User: What shape does this take?
Amino acid sequence: MKRIYFLIGCVLLGTVLSASAQPLLKVSPEEVGMDSRRLVYADRVIEKAIAEKQIPGAVLAVVRNGKMAYLKAYGNKQVYPSILKMETSTVFDLASLTKPLATALSAMVLVEQGEIRFLDKVNDFIPDFQPWVGEDGKKKDIRVIDLLTHTSGLPPYAPVTELQQKYGSPNPDGLIDYISTCPRDFEPQTDFQYSCLNYITLQRIIEKVSKKNLRDFAKQNIYTVLGMKHTDFTPAGETFRRVAPTEKLAQGGLLRGIVHDPLARVMNGGISGNAGLFSDADDIAILAAALQNGGQYNGKRILSPLGVKTMRTVPRHVASLGRTPGWDIFTAYASNNGDLLGPNTYGHTGYTGTSVVIDPDNDVAVILLTNRAHPDDGGEAVRLRSLVANAVAASIVDAKR
Assistant: This one.
């Protein structure tokens, strides 16, 4: 009898886990207030970019009202040394989409758990982390919110070769030592400067507070909760087999399943707050649907509605600078939002050619994943992102005015 109950329990558990891992319901564009004839314009601009060799290939996903309204693959996921066709299930190196989809979300989870707050000083968690010091000796501490909004004054990047020579690699502690004492470029909260060092510092705070590395914390609190099956740092197994490669290596071969970003790859061993996350369109669509639904998808919650709203709102004290805790609203980096979506639209991009744009007013997300860095770190996706966002926005026939 006990064995029967055990088997029934296993079946029920498997059913629950299977249900929680389902991708978004796929519907026609018309079922969610969109015009499929107008979405053809998005197809055309992507196909033109491929023909002009701006990108080898792409996957476009459009989420509306919590459903997958459009999902399509274009071109190739690999063109060297052999040609492999792009598939909608292709996994991409998300590059800087790691910042909002892993690091900022993880930080917000800890805020909601009462473990950290935006006003906490960085040196509360990293004792050797130095404040900004002005020419007159005035000091100002860098805080968690400054890291999240790229208003800390930290430099954009770090000299990877020098750090490797000094500390060896991988060496996350050496990288944090460098960030803790490197020159600050301006007084916190007085300017905006996009910086990978902000999010590597956030990673250290998340890991110190949670006592887990960023990979495990994000997986436990975000991806597993939502049933995202192919989202991970340092992918393996089936996820690895789906990965689109990025750049050719000088010594031969390709970067495939290994993060393209040098700081993340060399100094942080692939698990890094600035880059290193891999995912596919289906998984990102689930996460976008959760954010559009106040932090919940399929009955599973990762954030509260107020947490989601906070993440997409520019803080008042840096209102003119355009960055939210994790996302971009109106800085020079926000061109992927296009020209037609609503004023509260937020998004982010990745160096490898990835982009996510979410318009909360019209309940639509545009996920454009390209492999523009393959095979020679060339290609161009900046203008393409805007064109696709415009075509998708123009297909919404019940848009809020």
The CA atoms of residues 95 and 275 lie 5 Å apart. The chain has a mean pLDDT of 95. The radius of gyration is 21 Å. The chain has two domains: 25-105+212-394, 118-210.
